[in-house]
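ok so I'm stuck.
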Amino acid sequence: MSDPDLTPQSLILSPAFIRLTRQRRIIVYLLTSLLLLVFLGNLLLLSIWSDIAILKIQPDAVLNLAIYYSVFLLILSVICAVFYTWYANRKIDPLRTDVLSTLPIKLDES
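replied:
not stuck anymore, here's the structure
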């Protein structure tokens, strides 16, 4: 199962390592882009579109649109963190185990 002639270069070029880095890169870039875009929307709402940000959802409400958007941003951040944890446990960790199984030395997996 482990290759005694394994070098760092051959590990980086191995199909298992390439799959691992590709899967991780795709999900990290997607979630980061999503959160940055929503955060940028929050900044624009608070700075440039402040006349829209002070609109109230209901006429007698205390909270305005900026508060709702900021709470939405926080909830979306938590959802993305939970999703990434679930995705990493389900997809990335098995790929990591495959890559580690190709190493000639056994690493502690605690």
